[in-house]
Structure formats: C-alpha cells, structure tokens
Prior knowledge:
This protein has helices spanning about 5-20, 50-55, 90-95, 200-250, and strands at about 30, 45-50, 60, 65, 70-75, 80-85, 100, 105-110, 115, 125, 130, 130-135, 140, 155-160, 165-170, 175-180, 180-190, 255-260, 260-265. It is an alpha+beta fold. A hairpin with a 2-residue loop joins strand 18 and strand 19 (about 260-265).
Amino acid sequence: MDNSTLGSLDDIFLEYAENSLPSRPQTGVLYNASLPSNFTGVNVSIIRLRRDSFWRKGANYSGFYMPPRIFSLPNFTRLDMVFSNLGNMSSYYYSVPNYSLVAPVVGFNAYGSRNSTGQFGNLTTAMTKLNLTLFGGPILVQFPNFSLPQNEKPKCVVFYLNGTVEMTNMTLQDMCAVQDQGHFSIVVPHPTLVPHAPKEKEKGQLWKWWVFGFAIGVLGLLFFGFVIFIIVRTFRMRKLEKMEKEGERNEALGATNVGQSRMPLASAVRTQPTIENDYHP
C-alpha cells in the first residue's frame, strides 16, 4: 500500500472517530467509532484527555501503556487519541518483505482536540496532529489475539508514513517498546524464504536415536567379544584334548597272545646283574 493511501487511512479513521464523539464528550472515556461495512473487522476508538493530566499520569488504553512525562506540541489544552486495530485486514494495508505478520497491525495518533484553546489563546476547530516527545520511558504496545509460533524469533515492527520499516527485538513476551505514535505489529521470518533451525522436538528425537544407537553399539561389541572368547576357549580345549590323546598313545603298553587271549605286555627291560669281581665260588 502506498504512502498516500496509508495517510488517507489515518484521516478516515480520525473523521469517523470524531463523528462518534457525543456533543459533550467526557474526558478519559473511550468511545468506539462506527465504521462502514468495507472496514469489517477493523476497530477504531477515540479518547479525549487533558494535556496536563496526560503529562503527569500518562495513559493506558486499547493496549497502549503511555508513561508519564510525554510532551506534546503544538500546545493544546486537550488532546484526542485515536486508536486503531486493523484485525484481519492488516496484511492488506501493511507487509514486510521476507517476513510474515503474526499479530494485527495496531496504532495510535495524537491530535489537538477540536474546539480547544491553542497556544496563543485562540479558539481553533482544525485538527492538528501533535508531535510527541518521551521523557519518562518508551510506550509499551500489547497485541490482542496474538499467538507466537514455537521456536520462532519474533521482531517488533514500526511502519512509518514515508514507507520505511523499522524492526527491533521483543523485550517482553507479548509487548513491544516504541518511541513514538504510529502503526505497529510483530513479524517472523517467512518460512519459505528463511531456513529454520531444527525444531526442539526433532532435536529430542535425534538425541534419543543417538543414545539408542550407542547402546546397540555397546551391546554389539560385548556380544562380539563373547563370541571371540568362546571360539578361543573351544580351540584351546580341543588342542589340549589332542595333546592328551597323543600322550596316551605314546605311553601305551605292548600286547601279546596268551593262549587264545591277547594280553598287555610291558616293554620294560630288567636290569642285568653284574659281577663285582672275577672270583667264582
């Protein structure tokens, strides 16, 4: 959407919001604007505040927390705050290249209130957009109907009328800190253009498979070692049995026939007697 359209959109919201005010609006009361059917799903509201009270107390309306000590120029006794929530029409008016909106575009603008006394004491009926200077800290923006996808790194985004976009990191779970009036939302990298890191669930599954594989490997090594032990032990036992059989075979007694029976015969040689001298009795 071009800049002139966005500027005209703010003007349209201001017109409908001002027309929704009663003839004697109460200070500090939020009034909802009645919009035509082509803005179905869009919410616009307006509140009138006293400038000195706004300076001392700040304001907290429509998801915007404005701290005390916000200075507004030009100097009007009263000011009108117009709040907008584009709802399901957010992506029609605003977009960020390579990013997707995950929250509706919300915004606010401050105007010098109608029929209020200007800085020179004159009665004015023209609506003047005010410039805000923050001395008491940033304005906090809370987004309604906001659900952040898991494992995403959201960014706060500010849309300016000149077409530029500024992105900052979120400091709170569902809020953005901003320094001026305008339009704001939350974006995440587009899933088709920016690669994502592995999901936590996938990481957990990979870790479980790694542990399972490690356990299987350890059991496999133990089984392989046991098989090797059995083979070596069996080989040694067979070798010992073979050696024992060879020993028994070498020490076997001779055999001879005695009658009709075959009897073992020792092969030992008896020691022959020797004569100690040549004397014979």
